[in-house]
Amino acid sequence: MSETKKLLEVKNLRTSFFFGGKEVKAVNDVSYYINEQEIVAVVGESGCGKSVTQMSVMQLVQTPPGKILGGEVLFEGKNLLDYKPKSREMQAVRGAKIAMIFQEPMTSLNPVYTVGSQITEVIRRHKKCTKKEAWELGVKALSDVGIPDPEARMKNYPFEMSGGMRQRALIAIAVACNSKLIIADEPTTALDVTTQAQVMELLLKIVETMHTSLLIVTHNLGLVSRYAQRIYVMYAGRIVESGTTEDLLIHPAHPYTIGLLKSVPKLEERQGEQLIPIEGSPPNLAKLADYCAFCPRCPYATEECRTRPAPELRSVDGKLHFTACHLEAIPEEGK
Amino acid sequence: MRRFILKRIGISLIVIMLISVFSFSLVHLLPGDPAVLALGSEATKEQIRNFREEFHLNEPVVKQYVIWIKNALHGDFGISIAYKRSVISCLSERLPRTIAIGLPALIISSILGILFGIISAVNRGKFIDKMITFIVTLGIGTPTFWLGMIGILVFGLKMGILPLSGFVSPSENFAQYVYYSIMPVTVLSLTLLASVARQTRSNMLEVINQDFIRTARANGLAERSVIYRHALKNSLIPVITTIGMQVRVIVGGSLIVEQLFNIAGIGTLLVSAVSARDYMVVQGCVFLISLFTVACNFIVDVLYGLVDPRIRKAWR
User: pTM, whole model, 2 decimals?
Assistant: First the structure.
């Protein structure tokens, strides 16, 4: 954590989807940042807007129905939202400076082109080099991500590879162009457990050797707790708690984070101890109330929570730990 | 790839064998004596006997088939009773005209259909998409014969800018050929164009929402490459099927179009042969059209393999 230079800073980002005149606030005034060579995690349930946030950063939100309504995405000092989504400038950022890895390795590669052809196309898009040089860079990238016999694998079609192998190939595309930031959107969800660990280790290795930053988007708090330096917790399109991994895991301040932690199995836990799910389901983003969105599911909610407007992020300890909750203290036995 | 093609050729040959049986039995399955059918009810017993001798009609059916297929392999499909000349010469005289109308129609409708489909899909929901969709729906719903008649009425009779009917061979005078075939080709291509455009549009829309398109965009590829390299090749697979299957629309349509525009092609030959009970000509036409369809299916299969590596590799 010696690095303090911010690589990406998102300020007050708002993205909504419009379905038949109804506005669904998927990303509602979200701010976060990631430093150089830092590993940061964005955690939340399905549909909390964590993926849409990243898609907005990349300007890949489908318009219509989606629309980025406001905010700033500062990357290396420039506001990416100043560029049009289909502009040459934005395309030069995607894949080259910010690479994105998705949840579905099985379907994220084009089935009718070889892996090599897809890697070299991206390399040649972002680097001035001949076909042959691009091919060699591709082979090197494949071997960097630990794919055995990369020469032969370049000539393979995606359907000739396993899920883990495809995810590695997708990571190879990101590695090949020396991206400064890798956004991994649920990179391991679709993989089996042993492959999950391998892919995570691979991403860690890349951060170390290539000095990139890594933003992991996931619903798996257990997974990121081992890797991330800082964590943002998202709920209903907002960030509800942020801080170092230590802050969040040991002193969670938001009832939602507490709930998440209780629903994750721990190794040291005694047998027979129950996991406690968070009751209820996430709110309908089209019908958000004015007050705290977690209120209906919150075991600590008071009458005050329903009368006051939605809470803003406030510092817990005067340092990096923030929470968006009215409650000053959560009863200790709840934790 | 070679093995894939050889396999397809083998399958095509089997299909052609079956077709030869069908087109042979076509005549023999008809009720009544082929000799009487061919010569008419006023033929004398003498004539009928000679006819039966000449065409081996007294032999067992299987032997008749063997004789027929042997001759057919030598390009001899028998004699046309109406034209008093060999069937093969009738066919070879008329086939180029049908091709001269049908092939441009097939090419134009495929290219324009795919193009309209892409434009429509990329501009989904915008004015141009709505316009293309409207025209496409109209094109699918409009019968060829009606369209041809309206065309003749408007462009031929009222405006006088296009000829009412007729045909000039492209080898004779190319400019005249183009002038004469504008209307028949347009009329013939419209139905196929509409279905290709519709198919391309829906496939493109489906493919554009796939994960690998998102990956392509996330990797900073230009929109041109995303649409024409990544999306198009994937959406073409079902479109090729449509085109391959719709070739019969062109064949069927040429019957109508040739009749409408008075073009002496295979279509008119078949129609007149059926009404004149010129059964060897019918046999020849049916066999030729079937051969053509098998050839188209073969081309579609090979194209499939070229476009989709999964099929290519599975066929090994």
Answer: 0.77
